[in-house]
Amino acid sequence: MFSSIMEPRFCETDALGHINNTVVPMWFESARSPVFEIFNPSKDLTQWNLILRKIDVDFVAQIYYGHAVEIKTRIGHIGSSSFVCEHEAWQRNELVATGTAVLIYFDFDAQVKQQLSAELRAELEKIR
């Protein structure tokens, strides 16, 4: 598992005074950066090899401006060509959101999924 700290910005608040629901999926994507580096250490977009299949977010409590949010990320299920990132968002020691993202190891030139190598699987296992 690894952790990222997000500092909510004023522009991310909504009319109700809390962080807008569209922001949390972006925070979760940012928190997946270390996973992206496993597949593409330079994050060169011309060599990108992951595609997003599905995301979901469960909003557990309201999130507020002015207090940091810790995003905890780990790998859940690992399949033959895909894997699941699991996220938790914590603010002031309270779980405020959870979510998952299913990512597929993908060859964009051929437009087909690829099998995860033993080396990639081993790296993903390190963050379970």
Outline the structure in words:
This protein has 128 residues and is of the alpha+beta class. It has 3 helices and 6 strands. Strands 1, 2, 3, 4, 5 and 6 form a 6-stranded antiparallel beta sheet that branches. The chain is elongated, with a radius of gyration of 16 Å.
How many extended strands? Answer: 6
Quick one: overall form?
Answer: elongated
What count of domains describes the coordinates?
1
Major sheet: size, sense and barrel closure? Answer: 6 strands, antiparallel
Q: Give the structural class.
A: alpha+beta
> Would you tell me which CATH topology applies?
Thiol Ester Dehydrase, Chain A
Could you state the order of secondary-structure elements as H and E?
Answer: EHHEEEEEH
Low-confidence parts lasting 5 or more residues at pLDDT below 50?
none
Strand content: 35-45%
The residue fraction in helices comes out at 10-25%
The rounded Rg comes to: 16 Å
CATH superfamily: Hotdog Thioesterase
Number of helices: 3
The CATH architecture would be Roll
CATH class: Alpha Beta
Ends apart, CA distance between termini = 6 Å
Q: What is the averaged pLDDT score? A: 96
Keywords: Hydrolase
InterPro entries: 4-hydroxybenzoyl-CoA_TE, HotDog_dom_sf
Family: Belongs to the 4-hydroxybenzoyl-CoA thioesterase family.
GO molecular function: fatty acyl-CoA hydrolase activity
